Amino acid sequence: MDAAKLNQLKHFVEQCKNNPSLLKDPSLSFFKDYLESLGGKIPCESPRNTKFEVESDDDDEGLDAEEEESEPVEEKGYESDEIVESDIELDGDVVEADNDPPQKMGDSSVEVTEESRDASQSAKGQAMEAISEGKFEEAIEHLTQAISLNPTSAIMYATRASVYIKMKKPNEAIRDANAALEINPDSAKGYKSRGIARSMLGQWGEAAKDLHLASTIDYDEEISAVLKKVEPNAHKIEEHRRKYDRLRKEKEDRKNERERQRRRAAAQAAYEKAKKKEHSSSTRRPGGMPGGFPGGMPGGFPGAGGMPGDFPGAGGMPGGFPGAGGMPGGFPGAGGMPGGFPGAGGMPGGMPGGIDMSKILNDPELMAAFKDPEVMAALQDVMKNPANIAKHQANPKVAPIITKMMGKFGGSQ
């Protein structure tokens, strides 16, 4: 197993020993189950908010751990998904809705004559007599006949609606009241009958509206009496509706605000993450040339012992670069380098201590080349064995860099 991973695991176990409540975290339930399967017992402690600290020898892993800690966590269980409305205590009795087949209605296309109108009024008279005797079924039959003879009469429908109310059939009463109001939108009896029928079904708000309209058109004591029962319930329902509309809006506003905060936090975390990565990449240069020679070149090339870190050997480059007559064939355009690097015959005692490293470090081309793995591999190959320079003189990427570096060395003499 990777040594860094083992160190992290060891550190995590130490944290669990110091604070067993960490194992209460739902995300660690698999680990808790494993410990218990081995016979372990988790101490009962109140959970504390503790962050996991992860030690790592690798800068990237440490950065990733910090990013995970800074990742915004969405709140869970903050509020219930639905607002449960309380019951409303209402006064007054309601009846069970009648589900009888729709009653017979009049045919509006029938032509109404004087004779049929008179016959309709006669049927209505018979219905009123039946009503006074409490014979509601009979009254319905007479009124249905009256409607068939004169289907354009709003009062016939409204009267039949009032009989259905007495029979506690509010749905049929509402159908007749609607028919009356279609014929005559100002039918006070139509609004009154529909308002009373709706109150019987517990439709308090709609009932109050109909009864107020009826009272405006033609006030009577019966409407006033019904309104005294209907209005308190209608007000309670309206207040209840407004209260829960307000609560839902407040909840929605809180939800939107939390979402805005979450997005701001996510944007801030992303910014910090990018900033840390940029900082890490710009500072992760362990001495010396970036991507270059390990160990760095502190204070220029030492006057003795060669270049620490990679460049070989005390005593510099024995014998200099090969050949008293320069490199075989020379680098292109150089005409060869007689005697190798300055100091003809080699560099006993290492590269001169007077080399100005700023010439190299301030050269953009060289600094860019040091980041190229191919160039660096070639330079290190030459430094290990100067004779290997011949292998790279035909490489158009490597040869100019070596030539330029030798020029820098030569200029410092």
Automatic annotation (TrEMBL):
Gene Ontology molecular function: any one: protein dimerization activity
Positions of TPR repeats: 120-153, 154-187
Segments of skewed composition (Acidic residues): 55-72, 80-99
Region named Disordered: 39-121, 248-293
GO CC annotations, alphabetized: histone deacetylase complex
Domain STI1: 363-402
Family annotation (InterPro entries): Hip_N, STI1/HOP_DP, STI1_HS-bd, TPR-like_helical_dom_sf, TPR_rpt
Pfam families cross-referenced by the UniProt entry: HipN, STI1-HOP_DP, TPR_19
Biased composition (Basic and acidic residues): 248-260, 272-281
PROSITE patterns: TPR (PS50005)
Keywords associated with the record: Repeat, TPR repeat
Protein name in the entry: STI1 domain-containing protein
Species the sequence originates in: Aquilegia coerulea (Rocky mountain columbine)
